[in-house]
Amino acid sequence: MILDKIEQLLAEIQNLSAGSSEEIEALRLKYLSKKGEISALMADFRNVPADRKKEVGVKINQLKQTAIERINALKEQFEESENTDESIDLTRTPYPVQLGTRHPLTIVKNEIIDIFSRMGFILADGPEVEDDLHVFTKMNFAADHPARDMQDTFFVEQSADDVTKNILLRSHTSSVQARVMETTQPPIRIICPGRVYRNEAITARAHCFFHQVEGLYIDKNVSFTDLKQVLLSFAREMFGPDTKIRLRPSYFPFTEPSAEMDISCHICGGEGCGFCKHTGWVEILGCGMVDPNVLEQCGIDSKIYSGYAFGMGVERITNLKYQVSDLRMFSENDTRFLREFESAD
Ligand SMILES: [Zn+2]
Fold first, then answer.
1. Which residues bind Mg(2+) per the record (predicted)?
2. Annotated binding site for Mg(2+), which residues?
3. Residue 311: beta bridge partners?
């Protein structure tokens, strides 16, 4: 008796058809819902004699599977036919697509890369999670040198016996310079843009990460004059042809001699204003001649080659160009702020 019913339902299900999604749903309810035909069979199943339960059970399962497959197939057919519906009006005006904007740091980074690319510098890239060897040791930071405190960062793994094996978030992109120098012989002329990390309290003027662009040029007979001329050309392209530069002596472990570079304040033209703290100058980058120790550590003969390096913070240059008062705004993802740069290329 129950087997006849199963056969009858199977025949019905194999021939199901439907003309709308409502009809398909009605069929699903009729056969597969809790109050449907197949659930009713399950109730009858209790009365099947024990020695036939296995045979009948298998058949009910097959029936249920067939119903699921058939109804899914109807759904698919229906969706496909809906997609090819010719009643769609292809001439209708589309909804306007909202164009995104470039992030101000990307705009300025690209501008810096453009200027140095035109002077023959090529892009170099490296990992943000680095070892101590490339971030500090090869950059002439001795293991116990206090200069390491200038760049406190975040440690991922600390080695018990060998400080050069510590894994950390890079505190400057100089690690990329180290990686290029150890695999390439001069002439080397690269710029390394990228994100760097420092263990700093987050305020309007400092963050635990920021962006740098560093440059490195190594060849025979490279002098401080070359460095000064390249940086003057950069400053004039970036901030206007009347921009003046001045170099002040400074200290970095990886350069000797080292300098900080100021540009004439482009807001007051050097007259003195609140922005430049009435000095007429604003600091934009650090630079110097590559310390011979760095060249030797990276496998370059310092008796034959010399070079210069410089590094600037992209946030700092962006602040100078757009007077963004709070550094934190760059990473808050507030679209009201980001949309201010809509027209900037
Ligand atoms: Zn000024």
1. 256
2. 256
3. 214, 286
Top-tier CATH class for 104-341: alpha beta
Ligand 1 centroid – CA 208 distance (Å): 28
76-91 pLDDT, tens digit per residue, is 887 777 666 667 778 8
3-class secondary structure per residue, 56-93: HHHHHHHHHHHHHHHHHHHHHHHHHHHHCCCCCCCCCC
Q: What's the gap in Å between 205 CA and the centre of ligand 1?
A: 18
Burial 184-211 (b: 16+ CB within 10 A, else e): eebebbbbbbbebbbeeeeeeeebebbb
Q: What is the Å distance from ligand 1's center to 264 Cα?
A: 8
Give 322 Cα–ligand 1 centroid separation in angstroms.
Answer: 14
Question: What is the value of pTM for the model shown?
Answer: 0.70
pLDDT for the residue numbered 85 = 61
Q: What is the mean pLDDT of each run of 10 residues along the chain (345 residues)?
A: 85 85 88 87 84 87 90 84 70 80 92 96 95 90 78 85 88 94 94 93 87 96 96 94 94 94 88 87 95 94 96 92 86 88 67
CA of 255 to the centre of ligand 1 (A): 29
| Å from CA of 242 to ligand 1 middle | 14
Peptide bond into 104 cis (omega under 30): no
